[in-house]
Amino acid sequence: TMAATKTSKEQRYDRQLRLWGDHGQEALENAHVCLINATATGTETLKNLVLPGIGAFTIVDGHTVSGEDVGNNFFLSSSSIGKNPDKLLDNDPEFFHRFTLVIGVQLPESTCLRLGSVLWSASVPFLVCKTYGLIGYMRLVVKEHTVIESHPDNALEDLRLDQPFAELKSHIQSYDLESMEKKDHSHTPWIIIVAKYLEKWLSEHNSQPPKNYKEKEAFRQLIRQGILKNDNDVPEDEENFEEAVKNVNTALNPTKIPTAVEDLINSEQCSNITSQSASFWVMLRAIKEFIQSEGNGSLPVRGTIPDMIADSQKFINLQNVYREKAMQDAAAVSKHVECILQSVGKVSCKNASFLRVVCCRSLAEEYSVDSVNKDEITSYMDSPDSEMVLYLMLRAVDRFYQQHSRYPGVYNYQVEEDISKLKLCVNSLLQEYSLNVNIKDDYIHEFCRYGAAEPHTVAAFLGGSAAQEVIKIISHQFVPFNNTFIYNAMSQTSATFQL
Amino acid sequence: MADAVEPEKKRRRIEDLTEKMAVDGGHRDGACDWDGRWNHVKKFLERPGPFTHPDFEPSTESLQFLLETCKILVIGAGGLGCELLKNLALSGFRLIHVVDMDTIDLSNLNRQFLFRPKDVGRPKAEVAADFINSRIPGCKVVPHFNKIQDFDESFYRQFHIIVCGLDSIIARRWMNGMLISLLSYEDGVLDPSSIIPLIDGGTEGFKGNARVILPGMTACIDCTLELYPPQINFPMCTIASMPRLPEHCIEYSRLLLWPKEKPFGETALDGDNPEHIQWVFERAQERAAEFNITGVTYRLTQGVVKRIIPAVASTNAVIAAACATEVFKIASSAYIPLNNYLVFNDVDGLYTYTFEAERKDNCSACSQVPQDLQFPPSAKLQEVLEYLTENSSLQMKSPAITTTLEGKNKTLYLQSVKSIEERTRPNLCKTLKELGLSDGQELAVADVTTPQTVLFKLNFTT
């Protein structure tokens, strides 16, 4: 039955629904990804997409299975299209337009660039993955990826104590700490306590809030003095006041629009809304207009407060003050959306501070001599063992393949003699891009040693990493990397570069 | 689009290849191996390189060691365990044992890929072993549907490397303690051949870590206990009279209403029973309505009752891969192993951090130094008990304290056996002096977090 299937799916996917919600799951189940090359890296990535419930996948792989493939690949059979991607690019590049995202695994440079160009024009996100010996490589190519739910790990609270809105002000005013009985006094939320003592401070300090460490300490002391004392003048045990003291820094965080959001608001996409604009930009524009009117320079109130010691009623009442304000602000934003779109849209603003956009440069830009990111490369290469050297070696190895139609060191007898050949490729690469960096011979030797091996554990690491980035792109939740990821299994380190 | 002939040819070719293999299980040296099978692995065992371990010598024998001799123990056949078994099998390891006390649940299937819906209810270790043994010819995984505590030193001693994919800190500490107990010292010098490396992996949502522990040499689990802060439970007074969050309402229903109302007779609350969860959920909703608290859902209820930790396939894949890479490095001496702790987080981009966790000089598990207990003689035994459980470096669960008085072994307090608990409970209110303990007295403490008792030395303060 439908109900039974729904329940069994909810149970099956329970552990991940708690991370990306039902709407994230729905996006995943409506997606259709294309995997090019079912190597170990490819199938591991695919497994990590099939397990969470990806809607559909298509494999494009023109290779025949060899003995060593069966040796490192958990999946012996698959339903695959027995064509190779180069032929498809020749005859039917629009084949790739139907996909939510394309994953290209172990692709030679030329195929990669051709595919990159087709997908860029079609605005289909492209994830390039490569396992080469003990090195893992990922490159994300997406023109403009919007993230409404970034789920940041450590977000600042949105308490507005530096500029309390009217309802918060009057709620704070409804408290009179001095006349309270102990029970109420000890169960007053710390937000109220800090607000009250902040009022006191401001009146005594020319409306200037505590700014430096010394002043904040004095402010903490002021709060501590508010702790009730018993008949023997000994301070009572008031945990809520302790919380207030502990949270002074949090409370005094000025209400500010995060730089990332500020940049988005000032961006071109936000200024030029057309009928083609994605809803993300329409919402952002509405938020901008809100900031300039009802918001008085601030974002819509988020509406959540952290848990704190208080009795139920005081806590819930305070929470509701923030919640109702947030709903009010969301309604105001909705009106702006309405005006912009001339249609009604349901809007949740609690993520306003966490909006993010990821724009990756195209492969063409990365590879072109005119636009190569020389600064990024040379500055990282100041440390000659930085993961950047591994990126350059992968580029050199691609060059080797172009010249010799094979990778270096695949057979034992080739290892020694390929070292000098690979070195020539390294030098020509550095020269072509005018990169004044030094690559140690050890790395050239090591990459010959790898012989284009794809050891399973490195493929598996990359498979897990890649799958999650794909899920981020599909669900528009959590923030994808931008744009080059290198994993070094020798040192168990990694780095992300923007190339 | 699909060329109907090609997939058929490919399928037949795979069948041909499979037929050439010995499929009757067991490892008939070399007979399972088709041409090129270990090409990817061999490049790291048979070729010299500039970054290899100083002890590394390229040789064709290393592969034989992995295939025929090297014995690996995998603890856990869940999210990490399934990945580990696959990774090890595809890296050349054939002699693998796996221990897991659990059976398969539907909610495991979003990441524990060796299991299918038809396997629900069966022991994880057994199903996992079956799958790997059928899929990877020559691999011989031996399952143990057991708790780790079911085995003693004689079992653990047989392995070259042990790799953990556990979901419990207590179990980790126990395993850690077991390997430390296997160490032998001669004239105070550690015998390296008694060291069994422990690779430990852990994941939670989008975060994970992998670490390499050389017992007796590098930081052990207990050396870095502060990295695992104790689980926070809500205060009882909040739950009982001042709820603010939907979680408080759920705990009220679970901790207070269930024992009082006994809705299913004498049965204990079973988090896996949907009827039980439904009951807790409905009572929690009522409680929430009383206080105008919103947010109680069935999913939240289940999450709180079962202390569910969110989990996805990707994080487990990454951490298990890193762990398996380390197993390979150590078994083959191909590269210097991770020294010694890797942290991973892919909430925002992909973030890794690698550092060397330091040994604690007075670690209660691996330092061999008797632990110091500083209390005045007027302190009650209860205070000592609280110290043992609440101190962040000890974090014991239900310590049993014994000592020697007048030549005889005396149990001061033990919680886990009802009759002994009742008999020794009065001791908790007695002072250390009243109990006859003297300055410098040695106390032996047993706990689930360690297979061996921990020795403490009482130091009277004034």
TrEMBL record, chain A:
Residues of the THIF-type NAD/FAD binding fold domain: 13-84
Gene3D superfamilies: NAD(P)-binding Rossmann-like Domain
BP term (GO), one: protein neddylation
Coiled coil ranges: none
Pfam families: ThiF
GO cellular component, one term: cytoplasm
Name of the protein in its database record: NEDD8-activating enzyme E1 regulatory subunit
Organism the protein comes from: Myripristis murdjan
Name of the gene encoding the protein in the UniProt record: NAE1
From TrEMBL, chain B:
Keywords of the record: ATP-binding, Ligase, Nucleotide-binding, Ubl conjugation pathway
SUPFAM superfamilies: Activating enzymes of the ubiquitin-like proteins (SSF69572)
Active site: 237 (glycyl thioester intermediate)
GO cellular component, one term: cytoplasm
Keyword Membrane annotated: no
CDD domains xref list: Uba3_RUB
Domain E2 binding: 373-461
Catalytic activity: ATP + [NEDD8 protein] + [E1 NEDD8-activating enzyme]-L-cysteine = AMP + diphosphate + [E1 NEDD8-activating enzyme]-S-[NEDD8 protein]-yl-L-cysteine
One GO biological process term: protein neddylation
UniProt-listed Gene3D superfamilies: NAD(P)-binding Rossmann-like Domain, Ubiquitin activating enzymes (Uba3). Chain: B, domain 2, Ubiquitin-like 2 activating enzyme e1b. Chain: B, domain 3
The EC number(s) this enzyme carries: 6.2.1.64
Known role: Catalytic subunit of the dimeric E1 enzyme, which activates NEDD8.
Similarity-based family: Belongs to the ubiquitin-activating E1 family. UBA3 subfamily.
PANTHER family per UniProt: NEDD8-ACTIVATING ENZYME E1 CATALYTIC SUBUNIT (PTHR10953:SF6), UBIQUITIN-ACTIVATING ENZYME E1 (PTHR10953)
Protein name, as recorded: NEDD8-activating enzyme E1 catalytic subunit
Organism ancestry: Eukaryota, Metazoa, Chordata, Craniata, Vertebrata
